[in-house]
Amino acid sequence: MRFTKRDMEMIGYLKDYDEVDLSAMSEFLEVSVKTLRNQLKSLAEAMEEYGVSIQFLSGSRVRIQGHEKFIDVMNMSIPRFEMEFERRFLLLLTLHDDFLIIQDIADQLLVSKSYAEKQLSAIMKKYPDDIQSQRHYGIRYAGSQDKRRALFVRILFPYLFGEDYEAALRQFHELHFPILDYFTEDQMGRAKEALRLFRQMQWFRFTDESMQQLFLYVLFLARQRDSGNPEKPGKVDERFLEDFDFEGLEEWLRQLCMQLRLPDTREEIRYLYFLLLSLRKQKIVAQEQILEKMYCPVREILQGIYERLRVDLSQDEDLIEGLSGHIYTSVLRGDRLEVESDFYMVTSMKRQYPFGFEMAAIAADYISDMYNLTMKDDDLIYLAIHFQAAIERIKDREEKTRIVIICHFGAAAARLIRSKIERKIPDARVVGMYSLQEFMQIPEPDCDCIVTTERLVSCDLPVVYVSMALPEREMKKISECIREIQVTRLLKMNILEAIIVPVEDETAAGAIETMVCPLTEEEYVEEGYLSTVLEREKISSTSMCYIAMPHGNPAMVESTRLVIGRMKNPVNWDGAKVYCAFLFAVSADVLKNQPMAFNTFYRVLANPDVEEKIRRLQADNDLPDEVFRQRLFQIFQILR
């Protein structure tokens, strides 16, 4: 079956919850509860194939089970996503060099002529430079050969999956568009052989995403060669190609084109050379040269992150190497090989790794200034991955919860408990192991919590009692204790002292201005802070589902404060319906001393269950601020 746009919206919503209130979901999707219930019943049958269960409960609620299978659902549902007319039309144009009349377009796309005419009018206004309409002749694609190839790959790329690309195209043929009518088995075979050769080449090792794109590029080139189309790609910037000497690569490409019967003019060889350098890679032989070339830009970005967030990453060699390769490739690629961002991946990254995503947004701002290049969400994801890995390395060194073990079975038993805790709970670090008598001699233990096999008479620190065997249920108790400590630290960020403001403006920009106003008036932030919050939103929206988490430059914050904006009516915030916004104006000094404060605060807020509870809380507009503050505090307490 094909998934419709509504199916995808429902899947994206359901994957974050164990139980869902249909009234909230219907409001979010802007349909009635009755309509939503019927649509969910139809979707539930399809989801059963993947091992995901949607159970209807009393009180207009549904329970979702099998969350571990959602990754399969998301990977497989995109290729089954119903293809819009615009994409099918553009794909049709890329596969035809000549004019097509509207009746032929309608026939090939299985729609009526009147429907095609109505849709084409809007599409041609959207692509005035790339689509040509000529009376008595029809419509044709008039963009450059480079843009034609890139468009072909961009349209088909989301529909490739797994390792068998031919099988993916067969499914695409059956569900969306008769793609196999345009390519022969021989052309498919040449594209597959190209991938085999690319995997063996000595200069690069490509990501899976890049291999998928290469398959589509070679497939298109094979068809172009067989059709006799003499059109050549545009001239590439030779300066980039001459930055590094990949000795023998150009001759290797020439042999590849001859062997696979691909276009082999000088322009085509240089085009392929550019293509290989531009696609994302896992490894490149010229890494040292790239590090040297990108030294200044990467250092400037890391300095900017330090100035804004007070996190020093300048000594993280793994990060510097990863950023150098990624930024160089992104700048070289520009907007010539654009692929579509995975909306669900972007949302997930914002939820799980807010600090990494924030660093990516700062980096994107610098890249825009340096290279006049706007980083798309797809690039932000990759940048966030690099930064989050660096953050995790910091956490490994500094941010772990410190545990003391008290064990009456002896040193060997204590070491066994220590080994098990540190292996299974990455956020924990054992800082001491004692007998009860030894521990009683310590006046002020320097730790966050105590794990003990012995009963303590009194202790001001959190205590978890365990047995020598330390079964899974006791490990869970330790994890819950650590979580409680982290949330307790969060609550110390003055949730109960937050500034609460009513927001009547129904735009995101207006809401932000309302929230920044008390900070400026009380001189918690400098005058220009508002513009930094608005600029941050332009890079990538801070909205989630029901909440938004705007923030600005910490260097302009004099005193850390939290502002909570309560919306009179839900604000359309980049497609989300925002009931509450949390503006955490954190100072550079706080970030210097507590580098994970930002990450902890926003990660807890980005929990879908927390969002849902906040939505319900704010739905009662008549709730006094003090009651709202207390109940919000209780929501966080429940997490403990």
Automatic annotation (TrEMBL):
Residue intervals of the PTS EIIA type-2 domain: 492-631
A biological-process GO annotation: phosphoenolpyruvate-dependent sugar phosphotransferase system
UniProt keyword list: Repeat, Sugar transport, Transferase, Transport
Boundaries of every PRD domain copy: 289-397
InterPro entries cross-referenced by the UniProt entry: BglG_antiterminators, PRD, PRD_sf, PTrfase/Anion_transptr, PTS_EIIA_type-2_dom, PTS_EIIB-like_sf, PTS_EIIB_2
PTS EIIB type-2 domain residues: 401-490
Matching PROSITE patterns: PRD_2, PTS_EIIA_TYPE_2, PTS_EIIB_TYPE_2
Gene3D superfamilies tied to this protein: Mannitol-specific EII, Chain A (3.40.930.10), PRD domain (1.10.1790.10)
GO terms of molecular function: protein-N(PI)-phosphohistidine-sugar phosphotransferase activity
PANTHER family xref list: CRYPTIC BETA-GLUCOSIDE BGL OPERON ANTITERMINATOR, LICABCH OPERON REGULATOR-RELATED
Stated name of the protein: PTS sugar transporter subunit IIA
Organism: Candidatus Anaerobutyricum stercoripullorum
Lineage of producing organism: Bacteria, Bacillati, Bacillota, Clostridia, Lachnospirales
